[in-house]
TrEMBL record, chain A:
Residues 5-235 form the ABC transporter domain. This is Daunorubicin resistance ABC transporter ATP-binding subunit. PANTHER family: ABC TRANSPORTER ATP-BINDING PROTEIN, DOXORUBICIN RESISTANCE ATP-BINDING PROTEIN DRRA. Keywords: ATP-binding, Cell membrane, Membrane, Nucleotide-binding, Translocase, Transport. It comes from the Bacteria. It is a peripheral membrane protein. NCBIfam families: drrA (TIGR01188). It is found in: Cell membrane. It comes from Paenibacillus lactis.
Automatic annotation (TrEMBL), chain B:
Residues 1-20 are annotated as: Disordered. It is a multi-pass membrane protein. Residues 39-266 form the ABC transmembrane type-2 domain. The chain crosses the membrane at residues 37-64, 70-90, 156-178, 184-203, 238-264. It is found in: Cell membrane. Belongs to the ABC-2 integral membrane protein family. The lineage of its organism: Bacteria, Bacillati, Bacillota, Bacilli, Bacillales. Keywords: Cell membrane, Membrane, Transmembrane, Transmembrane helix, Transport. Pfam families: ABC2_membrane (PF01061). This is Transport permease protein. InterPro entries: ABC2_TM, ABC2_TM_bact-type, ABC_2_transport, T7SS_ABC-Transporter. It comes from Paenibacillus lactis.
């Protein structure tokens, strides 16, 4: 079967620093796949290789069966990229931007004119269409960028941190637009550092850290892999958090770690009763607790759990 | 936002060829000019007028006895002095594209990639043409009378545009290599102004020491200005014509392939 996006052992170094060290991906047609990871994990570099912007040092990648290096022109006809920093010409108006990109995709001038008007209208930029993009707000730029991304009706769309820096309202609107794209059959690869975003949108998530995809699965599968819930305890300053981590490990077999603030202990717990037991133990030892909470795992928790199970030191 | 499904069933046609893409980028540059008409007015109208007035009346009496006398010598040089610094803008545009990210989109679109550079450099000629027209008109007003007549003037103007096309590639290369647009203008001006002033733009080299005269006559700016002067005053000879066109071809032969190569191979980070 031909995947919409397929990568095997992709590698890329910059001046001796290995940014991507062996990324494997297999994304089906029509899927919305989120590449999730912290800053500097290799998300953007991976995306640049998949979109022909960067030549890989090693490994292979195919978009709808076309090699991103040997058949770059073919790949460019099938994809579109929408960036973290909206890739627009700030000295042109929104309408001029869309017409230019439409022309470069192969639309005739007449088609480009109609298309630009339609897109401006449907992305809520009808009134702003004849202002230069330099005067647009962050949300308006992302919307125009997305409009430019879909005008060629690409088979595969790459969205590089599309909502970073947006206000909640704009973020929700952008999510809505992305959902519609997928509904129409576009394959979407989205990078993000927000678990919530991946959770809301993605069919599947690939967790990327230190240049490798360390886990892949549906949001439910990934969250389950951390052990279900996270118990967060804030201690009074007098208590040694490492003591508590050891106590949890010895008494309950819990994997716990402390935050850098030195007073917070987090433990992955499979079920609520384990959390009760852990709190109970603290009570027995008369440990001073400021407060505690049981919650769904956050990105940090998933990240910690995954890096911990692959036998690596958590970097924080 | 709610209805991106709109009425669009259209798919793009064939990927645009080199000419179509170059045309699109030329149109883009024209839009830039139209959107920033104030900048164009300052750069191509106001600043050439000021330059011409300053040099004519500041140096005219001292160098040639009178302003009217001096402008016969000066004006051909002012054409170059006005247009060459304007070509730096070609480099700034490329650098801005790269720094602001629109380059990323260009690189993922299916068109003949060098069109992005060709289109903007060619269309920039329109700005130079405006500046040329302003300087010439102003010059005639101040008493400039070229012996070469209309044909000589047309030929000179065409050559200035050709020379500008050649120097554009130098700055396009700098624009590709630099990280920030400000660096482009800074670096380029450091190259441009010494070359412009260490030339025969403002003064005749015949009173200089021999060694300096040789150095200055080898300056590409001098070679270009000599030809322009010759064309305007109807005294250009074959050697000057060959040297003038040779300089342009040399600039293009060296800098155009380098620029395009760097542009296409540029690594994105």
């Amino acid at each position: 079967m031909t995947y919409a996006i397929e990568a095997k052992g992709l590698r890329k170094s910059f001046r001796g620093h290995e940014a991507v060290r062996g990324v494997d991906l297999a994304i089906r047609q029509g899927e919305l796949f989120a590449l999730l990871g912290p800053n500097g994990a290799g998300k953007t570099t991976t995306l640049h290789m998949l979109t022909t912007l960067l030549r890989p040092d090693g490994g292979t990648a195919y978009i709808c069966g076309s090699d991103v290096v040997a058949e770059a022109a073919d790949v460019r006809r099938r994809i579109s990229v929408t960036g973290q920093y909206a890739a627009l010409d700030e000295s042109l108006t929104g309408r001029q931007n869309l017409r230019l990109f439409a022309g470069l995709h192969g639309f005739s001038h007449k088609e480009a004119v109609v298309l630009a008007s339609e897109l401006l209208e449907s992305f809520g930029l009808g009134d702003a269409g004849d202002r230069t993009v330099g005067t647009y707000s962050g949300g308006m730029r992302r919307r125009l960028d997305l409009a430019a991304g879909i005008l060629s009706q690409p088979e595969v769309m790459f969205l590089d941190e599309p909502t970073t820096g947006l206000d909640p309202q704009s973020r929700r609107e952008l999510w809505e637009a992305i959902r519609l794209l997928v509904k129409k059959g576009t394959t979407v690869l989205l990078t993000t550092q927000y678990l919530e975003e991946a959770d809301q949108l993605a069919d599947r998530i690939g967790f990327i850290a230190d240049g490798r995809v360390i886990a892949t699965g549906t949001p439910e599968q990934l969250k389950a892999s951390t052990g279900g819930k996270t118990l967060t305890i804030r201690l009074s300053a007098a208590t040694d958090p490492y003591e508590i981590c050891r106590l949890f490990a010895d008494e309950h077999g819990l994997s716990a770690h402390t935050d850098e603030d030195g007073v917070t202990v987090k433990a992955a717990v499979r079920e609520a009763s384990l959390a009760h037991a852990a709190i109970g133990t603290l009570m027995e030892h008369q440990t001073a607790i400021k407060d505690f909470a049981l919650s769904d795992p956050s990105l940090d928790d998933v990240f910690f759990a995954l890096t911990a199970t692959t036998g690596k030191e958590a970097t924080r | 936002m709610s209805s991106i499904q709109a009425s669009r069933a259209r798919k793009p046609g064939q990927s645009p060829g080199g000419l179509t893409a170059t045309g699109l980028f030329m149109r883009r540059t024209l839009h830039h000019m139209r959107n920033n008409i104030f900048g164009l007015a300052v750069e191509a109208v106001l600043s050439p007028i000021i330059m011409l007035l300053i040099f004519t009346f500041l140096f005219g009496g001292a160098i040639a006895g009178s302003a009217r006398e001096y402008i016969q010598y000066l004006l051909p040089g002012i054409l170059v002095l006005t247009v060459v610094p304007m070509t730096v803008y070609s480099g700034t545009t490329i650098c801005t594209d790269i720094a602001k990210g629109v380059y990323h989109r260009f690189r993922t679109l299916p068109f003949w990639q060098p069109a992005a550079i060709f289109g903007s450099i060619i269309a920039d000629s329109l700005r130079y043409a405006v500046a040329l027209l302003v300087v010439l008109t102003m010059g005639f007003g101040l008493g400039f009378r070229p012996d070469g007549g209309l044909e000589g003037t047309m030929a000179a103007a065409l050559y200035v545009l050709l020379f500008a096309f050649g120097t554009s590639w130098v700055f396009a290369l700098i624009g590709n290599a630099a990280k920030r647009p400000e660096t482009v203008s800074g670096t380029s001006m450091m190259i441009v102004y010494p070359l412009l002033f260490a030339s025969n733009v403002l003064v005749d080299t015949s009173t200089m020491p021999r060694w300096l005269q040789v150095a200055i006559d080898l300056n590409p700016i001098s070679i270009a200005v000599t030809l322009i002067r010759g064309l305007l005053h109807g005294t250009a000879n074959a050697a000057q014509l060959a040297a003038g066109i040779g300089v342009v071809l040399l600039l293009i032969a060296i800098f155009a392939p380098l620029t395009i190569n760097v542009y296409l191979r540029r690594q994105i980070r």
